[in-house]
Design goal:
Elements (H helix, E strand, L loop, with lengths): L19 E6 L6 E6 L4 E3 L5 E3 L9 H14 L15 H8 L1 H5 L4 H9 L10 H25 L5 H9 L2 H33 L7 H17 L2 H31 L24 H11 L8 H4 L8 H30 L11 H10 L3 H16 L1 H17 L17 H17 L4 H4 L4 H22 L4 H26 L4 H29 L15 E5 L5 H13 L3 E7 L2 H15 L11 E6 L6 H15 L3 E9 L12 H9 L5 E9 L15
Helix pairs in contact: 2-9, 2-12, 4-10, 5-10, 5-12, 5-18, 5-19, 6-7, 6-18, 7-8, 7-14, 7-15, 7-16, 7-18, 7-20, 8-15, 8-16, 9-12, 9-14, 10-19, 12-13, 13-14, 15-16, 18-19
Length: 697
């Protein structure tokens, strides 16, 4: 067989495929049969499509295989795309994953409301229960309204999809930006609250709460990168343990109160003074307490945004989970608020102990059940971050599909999780946690703006949808969503007004910047699509003119000769250029080139001209770029740069080389009218270039 012969089993003019057909003799004389040989890395799929097997994803080298093994231990083995249906959540698991943020908010919502009221004196804490009832009323309206969102948009997207379709693109981007911010803050706040709960019975943690918070975010990131189903299996149980622990506490506490055995209030390490801190109780203070307690409503939108994560029927399962979430949160929140105000506990002035811990000590003492409740609370607060880890990547993928975020966010990882969104969320949340010192009180004012803005836009969008469609039952739906838009809009104004000077201004500043960024990304993708489209292409593209090929040569060796040989194979216009750092080295290279000039390395091809540039300032990249600019201005042809790159046997040997080719490639990346071709020369290669085996004498 010659080099020009087709591979075995391939007819002349036929493109070789992954399948090799070999004729074999049969058992009887004259019998022939054809056997198809297929590599193990690929299998035949439907419609003549090849499917890459797991062997095709296996790295070659030992370092790659080691990295692969470590990755499989941390994140699990890759899943096929068809397994996506098996990765969905049941109602039980969905409640634990998507509703954990809302349910866990009951652990600190009462404290945040009481902390605001306490500045006017301990007597003002009696208003906590009426404020809690008002918050539950808002929650009921939100749950009812969000159920309409789920039924109308079972494909997911929640507030973003509703606002974008019914109000406009900008409104949709505002809702999306608000939710993205909310998800980031969910992770930061939940982690900070979890660390605060741990520090209630392990005081040493309080001084290093930022470090512990970052460690816990890293653990949650790894768990979520293992896939939504496995993350659900890992993180579901603690949610139900928290419910059991708190419901047991509520039953016992209410029983003691109703039987007249009201417990004596335990004292935190640094309680609020009975006379407060000097601020007068007024409407503004009450509104501030309401807005602080309304943090418990966060997470209510996660189920609507993540409806596709549920098993079929997705919408029905999502609605049931939403109602269960609202019921559980209302019961726990009202129960804890009732017991706290009845017993008379006060928050810790400097956050050394949570109100939940003080209340539990008041009811059951410092025994094992107190430890059990605090551990359960700490764990669910940490796992509440899973709402952000589930919602943020899903919403980011929807935005990426709509060309409002980088396309990397739309791709699923090996475990069918949106890995880019998960990692990005962890990095930003960790940065915010560090910036605010891991304090729940400092983070809370940032927290509720986004979610109520998204609520208001989604409810307003549904009002317009019902008015436009006017399908059966549209009047009832329209009334429900109108009430929902009004209530959430008023709540948004209250939160923004009362928390503006406490940090909410930062969210209000970030949101328009984020909207601008998303819109700019969309404009970029649209301009690229317009430039690359084939719709208006009436005639074939003209063939390009032969390019001017420039081969930067650092030294005359096998790698350089291989690059020159390749350059002469693609164009008759080839120039070599050498940048010297001294006149002596320039002269020495010129002399050596002249010695090699007479050796015809590629028969029948024109000789290559050499330009030597002396760079007395020892700069290599910039003089070469200026040289390319001058050639481009003179010849008016496409410029092709052929780079010779030496590739050592092992990856760690790269640090022993200057990486000039890599730096030059990076410098040429954004240069117009320029093609960069990398010609690697592997260390094991010998004698591939004619004449390369000759040694300099």
């Amino acid at each position: 067989m010659t080099e020009d012969d087709p591979p075995p089993g391939t007819k002349e003019g036929e493109t070789p495929s992954l399948e090799e057909r070999r004729t074999r003799a049969g058992r009887l004389p004259g019998d022939r049969y054809v056997r198809i040989y297929r590599p193990p890395e690929f299998r035949r799929g439907r419609g003549g499509i090849y499917v890459a097997t797991s062997e095709a994803t296996t790295p070659r080298g030992p370092a790659g295989r080691l990295y692969d093994a470590v990755r499989h231990v941390l994140f699990g083995r890759p899943l096929e795309t068809e397994a996506e249906a098996e990765e969905r959540l049941s109602k039980k698991t969905g409640l634990a994953i998507l509703a954990s943020d809302n349910i866990s908010s009951s652990a600190y919502a009462t404290e945040e409301a009481m902390r605001v009221l306490a500045v006017a004196g301990v007597a003002a804490l009696t208003l906590t229960l009426p404020i809690a009832v008002a918050i539950i009323g808002v929650l009921a309206i939100v749950v009812l309204s969000e159920s309409r969102v789920i039924r109308a948009y079972p494909q997911g997207g929640g507030s973003y999809a509703v606002a974008k379709e019914n109000i406009g693109t900008i409104a949709g981007l505002v809702a999306a930006s608000a939710l993205l911010v909310d998800y980031v803050l969910t992770v930061a706040v939940s982690t900070a609250a979890g660390v605060a709960a741990i520090s209630s019975f392990v005081p040493a943690v309080h001084d290093d709460r930022v470090m512990w918070g970052l460690i816990l975010i890293a653990i949650l990131t790894v768990g979520n990168l293992r896939g939504i189903r496995e993350a659900g299996m890992i993180f579901a149980a603690p949610t139900y343990v928290y419910m059991v622990a708190v419901f047991g506490l509520l039953v016992f506490g209410v029983f003691r109160v109703l039987t007249g055995d009201v417990p004596a209030p335990a004292q935190p390490p640094d309680p609020f003074p009975a006379g407060g801190t000097g601020e007068v109780l007024g409407l503004f203070l009450i509104l501030r307490a309401f807005s602080s307690g309304a943090v418990g409503l966060t997470g209510s939108e996660a189920i609507a945004n993540g409806t596709p994560n549920f098993r079929k029927p997705e919408a029905k399962n999502a609605v049931i989970t939403l109602v269960l979430m609202g019921t559980i949160f209302a019961t726990i929140f009202l129960g804890l608020t009732f017991l706290a105000t009845t017993i008379g506990v006060v928050p810790d002035l400097h956050e050394q102990e949570t109100l939940n811990s003080v209340l539990t000590r008041s009811i059951v003492g410092d025994g094992w059940y107190w430890v059990f409740v605090q551990l359960a609370t700490a764990v669910i607060l940490l796992l509440a971050a899973n709402t952000g880890f589930t919602g943020f990547p899903r919403l980011a993928s929807i935005l990426a599909h709509d060309r409002f975020m980088p396309r990397q966010f739309a791709f699923r990882g090996e475990r069918l999780a949106f890995s880019t969104g998960i990692v990005s969320l962890a990095l930003v949340a960790g940065l915010i946690l560090w910036a605010f010192g891991g304090s729940v009180t400092n983070l809370i004012p940032l927290y509720t703006i986004g979610v109520f803005l998204a609520f208001t836009l989604s409810q307003g969008g549904l009002v317009r949808r019902w008015w436009r469609l006017r399908n059966p039952g549209w009047r009832i739906s329209m009334v429900i969503n109108t009430i929902g838009a009004t209530v959430t809009g008023v709540t948004l104004l209250v939160v923004a007004y009362t928390k503006f000077t406490f940090g909410a201004w930062m969210v209000l500043l970030v949101l328009p910047l984020l909207v601008l960024m998303l819109y700019s990304i969309s404009q970029h993708y649209r301009s690229v699509a317009d430039a690359l489209t084939l719709e208006d292409l009436d005639a074939p593209l003209p063939p390009p003119a032969p390019p001017v090929v420039i081969v930067p040569v650092a030294r005359l060796d096998r790698a350089a000769l291989q690059a020159i040989a390749f350059a002469r194979s693609i164009s008759p216009f080839v120039r070599a250029v050498h940048i010297a750092t001294s006149e002596e080295s320039a002269r020495h290279f010129r002399e050596r080139w002249e010695r090699w000039k007479g050796k015809d390395l590629v028969d029948g091809r024109p000789k290559v001209l050499l330009d030597v540039i002396d760079s007395p300032y020892r700069s290599l990249i910039q003089p070469l770029l200026k040289y390319i600019d001058r050639i481009d201005q003179r010849d008016r042809r496409p410029i092709t740069i052929v780079l010779a790159e030496f590739v050592p046997r092992h990856w760690w040997e790269f640090i022993l080389h200057s990486q000039t080719a890599f730096r030059l490639r990076a410098a040429l990346l954004f240069r117009p009218n320029t093609i960069v071709i990398d010609v690697p020369y592997h260390f094991r290669d010998t004698g591939d270039v004619p004449g390369a085996g000759d040694r300099e004498r």
